[in-house]
Specification:
The complex is a heterodimer of chains A (708) and B (186). Chain A is mostly beta strands. Chain A has seven helices and 39 strands. In chain A, the strands form seven sheets. Chain A has a 22-stranded antiparallel barrel. The radius of gyration of chain B is 17 Å and the shape is globular.
């Protein structure tokens, strides 16, 4: 109550102080977010056909945010990343699909799909390979977004928009270090120029990061006897057979790699190139405990070429061609015989690779019937070709000289889509849109994704919005094609997962303050689950030759089985005082989500029912450090892979000081400290899944920047 | 290759799409209506009515489209700075003709749609310099070429870019408090 009183006094005092010339209305309008991802055209977020918010580059800098997962946790509405030592898992509006590798959120970089074509994976931590200095803003579009983008946009769409050359001109160097221990170096360059009489520009950024440690205590978890050898199970690289998992982790917690991005524009042509390599491991991954020989790595190269032209008063055409190369490998040394193939009494090495290569073309034609953007029809068509490949198995040792892979598949797949959307703004107070996208894919057949939305500016600076949308996630290549004659039957009949969502919101601006209140309801169906086959199904698969006749133990198959029911509400309150010297914001989401139905209803692993963030910053001017404090919160939640184990509520505080060095204004600094109240995250680890993954309590980092 | 061929074919038609990230026109107009209310000289300049000319470039589809949007949005503002407001669309026929039109209609605001070359903007700015009015640019680079107020999009939010030199020449007076919210070009 005391805090609320202080806030109200500050707000009123701020209003009184400016009463002589009140600029709060203008300040509030200058904080109106403009997004391009919700409709593929530039529009105010308040009237976009979705709940759309942005995180600006200034906010990223002000709060010392270095990754997308931090941006979502500290600065975004309705999204939360469950960050553990092994990476992050992103949920929105109370729905988180554990272990999905981010494939229910569509991640875009300047409109180019980042989710790779083999597993739909999108990283939101360091593995995203997007240097943070180059980010102009991040658009977070909550809810189903397949109407324009197709697969993966079930929870929402996150579009990272990079800076223009004019806003990033010059040379930029960054060096950062963090306790326990991480370092990062980054260099960027941008320039505007004229090329053959056309305005042109180039923006480029490259970085290298390396994180190592810290050490954590795990276990002990007394597992007992190896079912194959009859002796205490071996969990360590040193071969000690005592049946106990755990200890003090050493070098196996690491992550490193380079990344780079270049965008070149000349006239109406724009070329974007991206490359990244990301290698990492954790002490508790599949296989031996704390074995630094294990790794996961991604290699990515993408290219995007686009061109846009107005053909006539009514028609505008945009063309885009793109190509993506992705290569994934996971290698896990395993000392325990029972986790290996038959006959591998002394352990093995589990190795899996996944590759995707492909590209496509997209054309979007817009028809402006009255030549004034009041009635605009968008017609888009897209065609893609991709090759996916995967192999893997249990090898005797790291030389891979033993028998060939247990599984291997390669497919060349075609896909096409067409979408149509009508956007109408017949009067200044009404904006509406309706459309649908039809997808065809050799992997799963066809799918239709509709959307309808309307926003009404019902009173001064107030907007009411309603949206209905559907989205889908195509089954991954792994889910459809992966087969193992001893343990897994292929799932060639898998359908796409689907979600339907309806939401309503009210947004009100009063001077420089903005309030958004929204409610949502979503229904999820045909979610892919890995389920055990019955004895009869095993016999039938053996009869078809899909399983080895001597199979023992469980056999699995991916099936469209699960459903989720979800509803809840969002709140956002943000604003500024003292002519934007003080900025603050509060985002909160309350959501109920259950998988299954009736007596089978179960909490979603990793999904908090209450989450959000709050932030305040004071920016006086160049001579004084900018002080920014942010806090993120996630309520108690069911642990991922832990049965009924629950993770405690997590609150993370972040304090950031930044500014220019005195007398050396081309040099800047950033000092960031983070403190997590809970020392455990929401992932259960170990063979017994009896404990939660440890979380780092303290982080302190220092960054120096040079801008010329 | 298909993309390149299609681009070459379509390149024979129409004009290049705008290369600047743009603030949506309705938001530009909302911002403009706030800014003009802070112009201390507007009541004296406008007399009893604020007249806005929306200038478009003949033959430019983009200019016509943005101009139409701006006219519609401005027409929705029945008052500006608590004064009656009128919007008039003008097709550009040269800087001297525009200057004459501004005098004839006693314009207080001139909104210049995209589609003009840098030379045309410079000539237009020079021709209007003697008149007390505010020139407004749909594209921020026009401010660098001589217009007074423009709109930019940075960090996903609109920014106002303002030429103080042009403002002092044309009798537009904004307080330091308002200027602090803009990017001011000296």
């Amino acid at each position: 109550m005391r805090v609320l009183t202080l806030v109200l006094v500050a707000v009123l005092w701020g209003a009184r102080a400016g009463a002589a010339e009140d600029t709060s209305d203008l300040e509030g309008l200058l904080d109106e977010a403009v997004v391009s991802s919700a409709s593929k055209v530039s529009e105010a977020a308040s009237t976009a056909p979705a709940t759309a918010t942005i995180v600006s580059g200034d906010e990223l800098r002000r709060y010392g945010v270095r990754t997308l997962e931090e941006a979502l946790n500290f600065l975004a509405l309705g999204a939360a990343a469950e960050t553990t030592l092994g990476g992050s898992q992103v949920g929105m509006r109370g729905v988180l699909l554990a272990g999905d590798s981010g494939n229910h959120v569509l991640l875009l970089l300047d409109g180019h799909v980042v989710n790779e074509a083999w597993n739909g994976t999108a990283h939101f931590g360091r593995g995203a390979g997007i240097p943070i200095e180059i980010v102009d803003h991040v658009e977070v579009i909550l809810g189903p977004g397949s109407v324009l983008y197709g697969s993966n946009a079930m929870l929402g769409v996150v579009n990272v928009v990079t800076k223009r050359a004019r806003d990033y001109a010059g040379l930029h160097l960054t060096l950062e270090g963090e306790t326990q221990w991480a370092g990062r170096a980054s260099v960027g360059y941008a320039r505007e120029f004229t090329l053959a009489g056309e305005s042109a520009g180039v923006v480029a950024q490259a970085e290298y990061h390396h994180a190592q440690g810290p050490s954590f205590e795990f276990g002990p978890q007394s597992y007992g006897i190896d079912a194959v050898t009859g002796r205490p199970k071996v969990f360590g690289a040193d071969g000690a057979a005592n049946g106990v998992w755990g200890g003090t982790s050493g070098d196996s917690l690491y992550g490193y790699g380079p990344a780079g991005y270049l965008r070149f524009r000349a006239g109406e042509l724009e070329l974007a190139l991206r490359g990244s390599f990301y290698k990492r491991w954790t002490p508790y991954q599949y296989g031996n405990f704390d074995d630094a020989r294990g790794f996961e790595q991604d290699r990515t190269v993408t290219a995007d070429l686009r061109w846009s032209r107005r053909l006539s008063p009514a028609f505008q055409l945009a063309l885009r061609g793109y190509a993506d190369l992705f290569d994934y490998e996971r290698l896990a040394p395993i000392a325990a015989a029972e986790d290996c193939s038959r006959g591998q009494q002394r352990g093995c090495v589990y190795d899996v690779r996944g590759l995707s290569q492909g590209g496509g073309l997209e054309a979007v034609l817009s028809f402006d019937a009255l030549h004034d953007s009041r009635f605009v029809t968008f017609l888009g068509v897209e065609a893609r070709l991709r090759r996916v490949y995967s192999d893997g198995g249990y090898f005797d040792d790291l030389s891979f000289s033993s028998a060939p892979s247990m599984f291997e598949y390669a497919r060349l797949e075609g896909a096409a889509a067409a979408y149509l959307e009508e956007q109408v703004r017949p009067w200044s107070w009404l904006a509406a849109s309706a459309g649908a996208r039809f997808d065809y894919d050799e992997r799963f057949g066809t799918h239709l994704s509709p959307r309808a939305a309307a926003s009404v500016s019902a009173w001064k600076d107030g907007v009411i919005k309603v949206v209905y949308a559907e989205a889908f996630r195509a089954p991954t290549a792994n889910e459809v094609y992966y087969a193992d004659a001893n343990a897994q039957v292929a799932s060639s009949e898998l359908k796409p997962e689907g979600v339907r969502s309806i939401e309503a919101s009210v947004e009100q601006r009063v001077g420089a303050q903005r309030l958004l209140l929204g409610g949502f309801r979503s229904w999820w169906n045909d979610l892919v689950s890995r389920v055990p086959l019955t004895a009869e199904e095993i016999r039938e698969a053996q009869a078809r030759g899909e399983l080895d006749s001597s199979v023992l133990g469980s056999v699995y198959q991916f099936r469209n089985l699960a459903v989720i029911d979800n509803y809840g509400g969002n709140l956002r309150f943000e604003g500024s005082l003292l002519q934007k010297k003080v900025r603050y914001g509060l985002d909160a989401t309350l959501a109920w989500a259950r998988s299954g139905g009736g007596d089978q209803a179960r909490e979603l692993e990793g999904a908090p029912f209450a989450f959000g963030n709050a932030r305040v910053a004071y920016e006086h001017g160049p001579a004084v450090p900018t002080v920014a404090l942010a806090v993120s919160y996630a309520s108690r939640r069911l642990a991922i892979g832990g049965g009924d184990l629950h993770a405690p509520a997590q609150t993370v505080f972040r304090l950031n000081l930044s500014g220019a060095l005195p007398f050396l204004t081309s040099l800047s600094y950033r000092l960031t400290g983070s403190y997590s109240l809970a020392d455990r995250g929401a992932v259960a680890v170990g063979p017994l899944r009896g404990e939660l993954v440890p979380a780092r309590a303290w982080r302190v980092s220092l960054g120096l920047g040079y801008d010329h | 290759m298909a993309l390149v061929v299609a681009a070459l074919l379509a390149g024979a038609l129409g004009e290049a799409a705008a290369d600047e990230a743009s603030v949506p026109v309705p938001l530009q107009v909302d911002l403009l209506s706030k800014v003009v209310a802070y112009d201390r000289n507007l009541p004296k300049r406008a007399g009893g009515k604020v007249v806005t000319l929306v200038v478009t470039k003949p033959g430019s589809d983009e200019s016509r489209g943005v101009g139409a949007q701006a006219k519609a949005a401005l027409a929705g503002k029945e008052t500006l700075a608590e004064l009656p407001h009128e919007v008039i669309a003008v097709s550009f026929a040269g800087a001297p003709a525009l200057a004459a039109a501004c005098k004839e209609h006693k314009a207080s605001l001139v909104y210049v749609a995209p589609g003009f070359s840098d030379e045309e903007i410079a000539a237009l700015a020079q021709a209007l310099e003697e008149q007390e009015l505010m020139t407004v640019a749909a594209r921020v680079r026009y401010v660098e070429k001589g217009l007074m107020l423009g709109f930019d999009l940075v960090g996903g939010k609109p920014k106002l870019v303002f030429s103080l030199k042009q403002a002092s020449r044309q009798g537009v007076s904004l307080s330091a408090k308002v200027l602090a919210l803009m990017t001011v070009l000296q």
